[in-house]
Amino acid sequence: MQYVWDFRPVWLNFGVLLEGLVNTLKLSGFSIGLGLVIGLVLAMGRLAPTRFLSIPATAIIEFYRNTPPLVHFFWYFYGLPILTGISLTPFAAAAAALSVQSGAFFAEVFRGGIVSVERGQWEAGRAIGMGHAQLMRRVILPQAFRRMIPPLMERSFELVKTTSLAATLTYGELVYKAMVLATQTYRPMEIYSTVAVMFFTVLFLASLGMRAVEHRLARRAAR
Amino acid sequence: MNYSFQFGEILANGDLLLRGLKLTVLLFVLAFSGALVCGLFIGVARGSSRRVPNLIATAYIELFRNTPVLVQLIWFYYALPALSGWQPTAFTAAALGLFLNTSAYCAEIWRAGLQSLPAGQWEAGRAIGMSEWQLLRRVVVPQALARMVPAFTNRGVELAKMTSIASTITVQELMYEAKMLSTQTFLPLETFTVVAVIYFVLIYPGTLAAYALERRLNSKGA
Amino acid sequence: MANVLPADVLPADATPVLAVEGLRKSFGTNEVLKGIDLKVGAGERIAILGSSGSGKSTFLRCINFMETPSAGRIALDGTPIGTEGRNGALTAKSGELRRLRTRVGMIFQQFNLFPHMSVLENVMEGPVTVKGLPKAEARAKAQDYLKRVGLAEKADQYPQRLSGGQQQRVAIARALAMEPEILLFDEPTSSLDPELVGEVLDVILGLSREGRTMLLVTHELGFAYHFATRVLFLHEGRIHEQGTPDEVLKNPREERTQAFLHRFSAFHF
Ligand SMILES: Nc1ncnc2c1ncn2[C@@H]1O[C@H](COP(=O)(O)OP(=O)(O)OP(=O)(O)O)[C@@H](O)[C@H]1O
Ligand SMILES: [Mg+2]
């Protein structure tokens, strides 16, 4: 049996797919931004000197890192409204699930970067009388930041791929648009192949960009 | 916030979830064991200085790492019957997709592990006439494996989470059964909470093991 | 040119154990070996001298095809190794390569013992996996060779626990266990603490009394003098001068050789 490819339905509906891609990027951008904030808060909590902060922060981080994102998507979309009485749009539920889930991963990147700053730096800061927050802001974070950039970007690419799960909540991102088109045109192969290429193009270009940034960082560090 | 939780009804349907869980575990075991082995071959090709194998392996790895698993699973679900004429079950398509995806990631771990070995070890093996496969089996893999175990464990954790995506192509694993249960009982909050906890209990030991292995490795290196 | 072939060393009709003709090797555009000719008779011991970067290691490594020669011919017992490819480079199939390497042993500057195997297992590894010897036989043989290098009592230790000198002696036993016709040593004592050099050189001298064919790269001129039947001085990828130890080391004819030896003013035989 020889499959006959027919990409015409794809070209005719390419605008729909592009719209999906824009929504994918919208969801990604929003979740990365919020996720970074959540991640920073969680990391600070985990590293805080008091257990009242470090234990809950650690629990949230570990829980979200060790459970499937899909479960969180469903939990936020179908479960959370029951608890709060506020129902979320598919976009809001997906963004919330993604932000918290990625926040847990971002937090570990932040923590890793912070912990990697040499002990002497902490001691030097304390020796001149800096408090914990001051020390973080003025001494540690500026040094740790550079090392965090590559893993943060890597994690963000993971997030972009995970946005595809928002299709299960009927949010109109790229995969959802593809599902709709596939049932309309009966050309799932062509449509999903195109979608794969679209994701690949975006992510591959982004990772090439990341390598360039890494390269620049390494060169600057070497100087 | 005065919602009264009804976990009882969910737990009463435990057998349903358990049935799904079995399939989740089966998916994991099939995909992971296959990927560990297949990853070695792709990883060797990726690390090879020969152009053609290197190019194929690189393309394979980049393709799988730069597209969402969901798209990969759906694609296999439709592509296998269309291209080969063979109609796999949803389970087979999912297992195959997860296996191929995880192989790509395992290949990178293998490559890094193989390259971490000093060149002198390869040379010593070649100098006594070992073939490349003998070298891999007897010299390289035994030494590199210890260093790679934490990375493989992390990969296993990622795969375990990924199995849930098989539910979207109607594989009746844990996540699928959870969706069914939540609509039957009208208790999505309880259902997805319980299911999240089940996944956590299943997966967290893996993460803890990776932490412990990494610590042991670091202290050994110091 | 002083490139005299020592026809007097070989009986006229004897096939050399190793014959190298017009050997060239380039890394990219950098030609490291620029045409080397060498015939080695059975039982000859050849010391190779030369300054850093002159191509000594590359030469040894071409002999057992750890590096593939870019041009030229290499023959063992009269049988050429590999076939000439399109661009003149030699290529050998993997089976031929493995057979070659069981016939030509190599000892490295960095020992390169297998750290996950005991000393005995290191020595057994080649005979068992490459030659397919039964384990018991390989073990007995390995124990023999360990005794020969004076390390019988270390058989069950792991390499990390041994001193550098002991590790290098195990590496020699590992090469011997393959029962090769030729042994190649690439600066076997260069990464050893001075007080450990002697024990390794003693083992190598012991081998020379057995009449083994050996090629050895070294910076230990005193040792080279006692060890070698012939000394080669390599310069910029060519054999610049060769002859008996007395000729090359005591009365070098070439200016370069003299300059090289002069740098080792502190050496005495
Ligand atoms: N794998 C390689 N790739 C590229 N260049 C190489 C390689 N191996 C050796 N070379 C180059 O070939 C030249 C000769 O190297 P070789 O190791 O043979 O010198 P040597 O005489 O053994 O020096 P030393 O006394 O320092 O060991 C050097 O310029 C080196 O940089
Ligand atoms: Mg050298």
From TrEMBL, chain A:
It is a multi-pass membrane protein. Gene3D superfamilies: MetI-like. It comes from the Bacteria. GO terms for cellular component: ATP-binding cassette (ABC) transporter complex. PROSITE patterns: ABC_TM1. It is found in: Cell inner membrane; Cell membrane. Keywords: Amino-acid transport, Cell membrane, Membrane, Transmembrane, Transmembrane helix, Transport. Residues 21-210 form the ABC transmembrane type-1 domain. One of its GO terms (biological process) is amino acid transport. Pfam families: BPD_transp_1. CDD domains: TM_PBP2. The chain crosses the membrane at residues 20-43, 73-98, 191-213. The keyword Transmembrane applies. One of its GO terms (molecular function) is transmembrane transporter activity. Belongs to the binding-protein-dependent transport system permease family. HisMQ subfamily. Part of the binding-protein-dependent transport system for glutamine; probably responsible for the translocation of the substrate across the membrane. This is ABC transporter permease. It comes from Ancylobacter defluvii.
Automatic annotation (TrEMBL), chain B:
Residues 21-210 form the ABC transmembrane type-1 domain. SUPFAM superfamilies: MetI-like. Keywords: Amino-acid transport, Cell membrane, Membrane, Transmembrane, Transmembrane helix, Transport. PANTHER family: GLUTAMINE TRANSPORT SYSTEM PERMEASE PROTEIN GLNP (PTHR30614:SF20), MEMBRANE COMPONENT OF AMINO ACID ABC TRANSPORTER (PTHR30614). InterPro entries: AA_ABC_transptr_permease_3TM, ArtM/GltK/GlnP/TcyL/YhdX-like, MetI-like, MetI-like_sf. It comes from the Bacteria. It is a multi-pass membrane protein. It comes from Ancylobacter defluvii. Part of the ABC transporter complex GltIJKL involved in glutamate and aspartate uptake. Probably responsible for the translocation of the substrate across the membrane. Part of the binding-protein-dependent transport system for glutamine; probably responsible for the translocation of the substrate across the membrane. One of its GO terms (biological process) is amino acid transport. GO terms for cellular component: ATP-binding cassette (ABC) transporter complex. The chain crosses the membrane at residues 23-45, 192-213. Belongs to the binding-protein-dependent transport system permease family. HisMQ subfamily. This is Glutamate/aspartate import permease protein GltK. It holds the Pfam family BPD_transp_1.
TrEMBL record, chain C:
It comes from the Bacteria. Belongs to the ABC transporter superfamily. One of its GO terms (molecular function) is ATP binding. Pfam families: ABC_tran. Keywords: ATP-binding, Cell membrane, Membrane, Nucleotide-binding, Transport. InterPro entries: AAA+_ATPase, ABC_ATPase_HisP-typ, ABC_transporter-like_ATP-bd, ABC_transporter-like_CS, MetN_ABC_transporter-like, P-loop_NTPase. Its main location: membrane. PROSITE patterns: ABC_TRANSPORTER_1, ABC_TRANSPORTER_2. Residues 18-261 form the ABC transporter domain. It is found in: Cell membrane. GO terms for cellular component: plasma membrane. This is Histidine/lysine/arginine/ornithine ABC transporter ATP-binding protein HisP.
